């Protein structure tokens, strides 16, 4: 079972994958494995952002001047 990591750790790992791929020292099989890992991390980061966006609320003043929550 894969451990769920936070967004910041996901991005850090994704940056490490990119550096490895840009370095050019990996053979083809290693490059493919790192690319696959990067794609999974990217998907995970996107999902995390989508979930966070759903939770965002914006406080707005209604016509009476009171603050109310409005879904983003």
Textual characterization of the structure:
With 72 residues, this protein is α+β, with helices and mostly antiparallel strands. The protein has one domain. Helix content is 62%, strand content 14%. The chain contains two helices and two strands. The chain has a two-stranded antiparallel ribbon. Strand 1 and strand 2 (67-71) form a beta hairpin. Helix 1 packs antiparallel against helix 2. The model has no long low-confidence stretch (mean pLDDT 86).
Q: Report the mean per-residue pLDDT as an integer.
A: 86
Envelope shape: rod-shaped
State the secondary-structure class.
alpha+beta
The tally of domains stands at: 1
Poorly predicted residue ranges: none
Read across the widest sheet, the strand sequence of neighbours is 1-2
Order of helices and strands: HHEE
How far is the N terminus from the C terminus?
33 Å
Largest sheet: 2 strands, antiparallel
Strand tally is 2
Helix content: 55-70%
Name the features.
single chain; 72 residues; alpha+beta; two-stranded antiparallel ribbon; 2 helices; 2 strands; 62% helix
Short description:
This protein is α+β, with helices and mostly antiparallel strands and 72 residues long. The protein contains two helices and two strands. It has one domain (7-71).
